């Protein structure tokens, strides 16, 4: 199997696209004609430039409105094809994609189209070229790969074949099993794209919302399995029309593309077993069992502030690093590290971003395999020479340049807390507040980064995403989704800010980048927890009384219960599974905060319905303007 990507999938001019594609490790490209037309070099020079990047031109595309035309348009279309064949010879491309005719002039008829393709195949063969036929989902007469295949079959010419594109098949809900009986040698090329499920016009959906396999909701894995079942072993190419990608960073979009293809081929083999056409198998997606620690990079002043917050939340100072200026604050299974060291990664993170979460430790089944998979999927390994008595714990770069450490239950990693840290004897025992474990970590990023991080987590780990929700901030939208494992022991929410005036956008701007913005901690009895916290000076975020009036109306809550909620600043939600209680801390620094939650029954969400009221309250507290400043 070879990998490819259409130039249209990447931003920049042709040269920028090629270097990003080559650096990401693709074998070749589909040249999108407009990318060539907009470029200033001759066809021969463009061909050379592609090959100088170590890439091949796997496909030239698209050629439109070809089949089924009445005369005299038919003759003109053949003349136009000959001109493009000239161009292909100069470029050094031997396969052209012909997409199904959308012209109102097209006459339709399987045999008429087949005759046109037979003739075109003859003309292409004279030049050693091949033509591939693709059914656009919105083609005038042909909009289904099964009909396109019937035309190719009847054209019965060795230089005429079928091109399959997952979007066109899956967007129309066409059963992919119909692909399995197509002979592999008649499939000339395969294009892959995913897309979020949105009910809209097919053409608009395709041209603006496609994304990489695994980033959307289509069963691209099922499609790919069907293609491979034919014995097809040639190019799998990403053809992604996406507005965000057109404006994104060429290098990171290309890397996401490569990651998505590797992950897809791995997913196929997890269902079907080893497939000869595919490259080496990866270790399985890592099973995350929970969060082992969250580490903050802090200076002296912020450290004192955080210590005050953690104490108010019922954490106790449990241990100190044997060699470095790092303290462990603990409650239940939750470990929070405060790193004030003047050397190493935490310190550089502090210099660049200010105080904040710089490192998250994940507990998972096998950290060696997790690292191997992450590497194979293009994650950046993080290495820092361990100091005396320190363990080398596998780690990679995560969101905003932060670190993700992988800790498993095997020696010596499982003993890291005893090996590297010394327990601190509490002078006066602290009454714990009943916070048992970490519920979720909310990471804030620019909205344009969300697909990247969603793919990052879901390809490295055995996790899945929830549908994306729009959360309303008075100054704009924040897109939100969760990455979760099956038992809920691992939950990250990704929040994408569309502008800097939202609370999330402000946080990114002030911290110079994406980072964890809040940490939610679980209690088994939120009111008991709050009673303890009150004695420790914890002041919850004040929520508008109007919120509670509406809550009463929405859920039919009785007055006593409502009074209990509002008196303690607790927000409430309910789903089919159960109930959700949440309370927020004051915000800290430029908008970091803690949340305390209780899940009763099987509540599976994150209280998204409450987020706008929480955000408005936080903005009042931070005195951020709710409206754009002019
Ligand atoms: O949107 C289009 O016109 C278009 C063109 C070529 C393709 O391969 C395709 O899938 C869509
Ligand atoms: Mg296509």
From TrEMBL:
One of the protein's GO biological processes: 3,4-dihydroxybenzoate biosynthetic process
Protein family per UniProt: Belongs to the bacterial two-domain DSD family.
Positions bound to Mg(2+): 440, 518, 595
Molecular function terms from GO: 3-dehydroshikimate dehydratase activity; isomerase activity; metal ion binding
Organism, scientific name: Devosia litorisediminis
Protein name according to UniProt: 3-dehydroshikimate dehydratase
Every VOC domain range: 290-409, 437-586
Key words, A-Z: Isomerase, Lyase, Metal-binding
Function: Catalyzes the conversion of 3-dehydroshikimate to protocatechuate (3,4-dihydroxybenzoate), a common intermediate of quinate and shikimate degradation pathways.
Database matches in InterPro entries: 4OHPhenylPyrv_dOase_N (IPR041736), DSD (IPR043700), Glyas_Bleomycin-R_OHBP_Dase (IPR029068), IolE/XylAMocC-like (IPR050312), VOC_core (IPR037523), Xyl_isomerase-like_sf (IPR036237), Xyl_isomerase-like_TIM-brl (IPR013022)
Binding residues for a divalent metal cation: 134, 165, 191, 239
Pathway where it operates: Aromatic compound metabolism; 3,4-dihydroxybenzoate biosynthesis
Enzyme Commission number(s) from the entry: 4.2.1.118
Sections of the chain in a coiled coil: none
Reactions catalysed: 3-dehydroshikimate = 3,4-dihydroxybenzoate + H2O
Cofactor(s) required for function per UniProt: a divalent metal cation
